[in-house]
Every structure is written in structure tokens, then in C-alpha cells.
Amino acid sequence: MVRKTKQEALETRHRLLDAAEQLFHERGVSRTSLQDIATAAGVTRGAVYWHFEDKVELFTAMMDRATMPLEEGLLPREGADVPPTLSDLRWGLLNVFHTCSHSERTRRVFEIAMKKVEFSGEMQALHARKLANHRAWRSQNEACFQAAQKAGQLPATMDTAAAAIALVALVDGLIHQWIMDPSAFDLMAMGEAAIEVFMNSLIQDGAPLLPPVSPEERARLGTQAICRPTDSGLNIATPKD
């Protein structure tokens, strides 16, 4: 009898998470109440509070259900002293692209997190989690690059912190672009190609394609010209006083 009760509670929890995921995606998080979720799940509002303290906890559980496998693949294991290898890093990122492309649930919660939630009011606490995850991701990347430097796989002069930030921006940017327009490109194919190009670029020691921007040129960019995207490319306009 106890086993059946636990099973029923688990089924109710999943129904609530399913309802929250669907309503958050349709209406946005701020426009969805706990009563809306309870009604959609076919339970009472009291049942919601039995499983979740508030909307933040429910939202967090919904995200965890879809993204925890991805975070476990990207973030360092608790207590692990050995950073991932470059190969581990690559396969972890490819797993992210593959899961986004093939899991409807993962794609939906990513879209909710990117487009359907305002990190203000009661949801402000979620911003701290997002920031912590990004910092941990960058730290993992940097530790991986530093280990590769010690192994002689990457140039000793490479800025590992900058490379770590660039990799996060690359992956995050690709997923954002794909979520906005999934028909624009194949996320798995584009992601794999982008990661290969990025990783290979770290070991290049030839002459740069463009000379570095001088301090004088950088100053002019900041005070004399503004780059604005247009249908035909970039329009360089001089700001008026």
C-alpha cells in the first residue's frame, strides 16, 4: 500500500511538471499561476504546495528534469580533482547539441528559459543559479585548457580565460540562434563544425589574418563611428554631437 502511495505521489508530481512546462511555454512564466497549473494537471492547489514550496521551486524542478543530464555532462563532478580532457569537453558539448536537437522536452525548456521568463520578483533567485552554472562552465573550460597546456597540447601563451569565455559564448550563441529559428540550420551539424573549428584554432601559431586593432583605432571606433546592421550589411555612421 505504501509503495502505491509513493507511486501515486510521483505520478502527481510529473503531471504538475508536465502542466507547468506546457503552460510556461504557451503563456510565459509570469502569466501562469499555480492555480492554472493545478487545474491543467487535474489536482487541487493544495497538491501543488505539497510537492513544491512556490513557483520558483516548481520552475527549478521543471528545468532540472530536462537539463540535469546536460549540466552533469558540462560541469565538473563533485569531488573530482582531474579536469576533463579536450576530448571530454568536445563530446560533452556535442551531447548538448544532440540532446537539444532530438529531445522535445529539452528544446521546450530551453525556449522557456531563454524567451518566456523574466528574472525579476519571485524569479530573481533563478538568476543566481544561471550565473553560477555559467561561472562553473567557464571554470571547467579554463581548467581543461590549462591542463592541455601542461600536456603540451596547447600553446603556453594562450589566454585560457579568454578561450573559456569564447567557448561558452559560441555554444550559448548557437543554441540561442537555433531556438529562435530551428529551420535555419542543423544544430548538431553546425555545432560539431563550430567546435572543431574553435578547438583547432587554439593551436594555430601562424600570422593573424588581421593585424591587432591599435589603441588609436579603438578610440576612433568609440567616438567617431557607430556600426549599425542593415539588410545589406554594416552601416558605419558618424554620430552627431
UniProtKB/TrEMBL annotation:
<keyword id="KW-0238">DNA-binding</keyword>
<dbReference type="InterPro" id="IPR023772">
    <property type="entry name" value="DNA-bd_HTH_TetR-type_CS"/>
</dbReference>
<dbReference type="Pfam" id="PF08361">
    <property type="entry name" value="TetR_C_2"/>
</dbReference>
<protein>
    <submittedName>
        <fullName>TetR family transcriptional regulator</fullName>
    </submittedName>
</protein>
<keyword id="KW-0678">Repressor</keyword>
<dbReference type="Pfam" id="PF00440">
    <property type="entry name" value="TetR_N"/>
</dbReference>
<keyword id="KW-0804">Transcription</keyword>
<keyword id="KW-0805">Transcription regulation</keyword>
<dbReference type="InterPro" id="IPR009057">
    <property type="entry name" value="Homeodomain-like_sf"/>
</dbReference>
<dbReference type="InterPro" id="IPR013572">
    <property type="entry name" value="Tscrpt_reg_MAATS_C"/>
</dbReference>
<dbReference type="InterPro" id="IPR036271">
    <property type="entry name" value="Tet_transcr_reg_TetR-rel_C_sf"/>
</dbReference>
<feature type="domain" description="HTH tetR-type">
    <location>
        <begin position="10"/>
        <end position="70"/>
    </location>
</feature>
<dbReference type="InterPro" id="IPR001647">
    <property type="entry name" value="HTH_TetR"/>
</dbReference>
<feature type="DNA-binding region" description="H-T-H motif">
    <location>
        <begin position="33"/>
        <end position="52"/>
    </location>
</feature>
